[in-house]
Amino acid sequence: MKTSADPIRDYLSAVEREASALTADRRQELLADLAEHIEVTRAERPDAAIGEVLTELGDPRTIAATALAEAGHGVIGISPPGGAGAPAPARRGKVHPLVPLLMLTLPFLVAVFLPDVPAAQFCSTLFRVIGAVLLCTSVHWTAVQKTSGVLLAAVLPTAAISIWISSSADLAGDTPALLANLAMLALLAGTAAWLWRVRRP
Question: Which pTM was predicted?
């Protein structure tokens, strides 16, 4: 069987075929978004194989089905999960990718500046948990990126803050606290910047 020398063109053609029920404008927008994502990913990871990039992007049929469901179209020939009468599943990517990143990072500032206010600490923790959940349910990152993001932006800072609070008597003084807070802020900002850079469209 003859294989094409341009897997990217084949991939985009497959998405275009599967999404033929979309309007021409929406279909072209979808293809342009995919092409841009592929180009950015290849620029950021020049050593990655084209096949690996396309696999991470997802199956053309799934991408088309998601776009069709988002546009309110039924997907011909595909039964939604739960049976033929079940509604198409809602897309998990309705939340902008910036929202979970902000919810994971900004509450840290509340925890730093209002350390003696229980309500502020509770809200900070709640927002960080919600941010972690939104990150894990987002379609903008792969499973590995989500796991790394939660570990670096939620689990590690929470553990560090807990250790710091429990040993505050031994680590008294403004300089150690300032250095610890700056290091934690740098970790959160770096993680958020990395997640923003590697996000899917």
Answer: 0.48
